[in-house]
Amino acid sequence: METELTLLQAVKEGDRQAMRRLYERYVGYAMGTSLRYIPSRDDAQDVVQDAFVRVFTSIASFTYRGEGSLRSWISSIVVHRALDVLRDRGRLLIVGDEQLAAELPEADPPVEQLPPQRLTQLIAQLPDGYRTVLNLHVFEGLSHKDIARHLGIKPDTSASQYLRAKRMLARLIREELNIENRNFERK
Length: 187
Prior knowledge:
Blueprint: H1 4-12, H2 16-37, H3 41-58, H4 69-88, H5 116-124, H6 128-138, H7 144-151, H8 155-176
Helix pairs in contact: 1-2, 2-3, 2-4, 3-4, 6-8, 7-8
């Protein structure tokens, strides 16, 4: 299999076949990333297409930092494009305290009992603000300070949105697994 560096060099040299290989290699990953933020498949595909246009127009300025860095860079472009779409559509709303349904147990439900695809579908059911903060923190590894900077909110707001997202997702998981609303101990 072609290394990321070899593929990147060929793309930077203008090799159209290499561009196609890069797209084919990372489009699935990019789509998965996009769907975490934009639940509509059609809208998520638009985000991915826009992201790849940005990838190809700015790849000359990309600095390779080792295997996996190209994929990470593509992912960050997809995330930023998804956030732009949410902002542009006025969908990036941060939900206030009064909109949190009910207090839920602190312990995590048995997530491992769900297939990854179903877990992704449950995450997609979260309000946009919750889902966005959860994704940025869990999947992108951003701190609440960094999330706050990206979204124009306070770090404490990011942390509380993350907690609310976790609690709502826990409720959805328990409902999915038909488990009573009780605390779970990690094994």
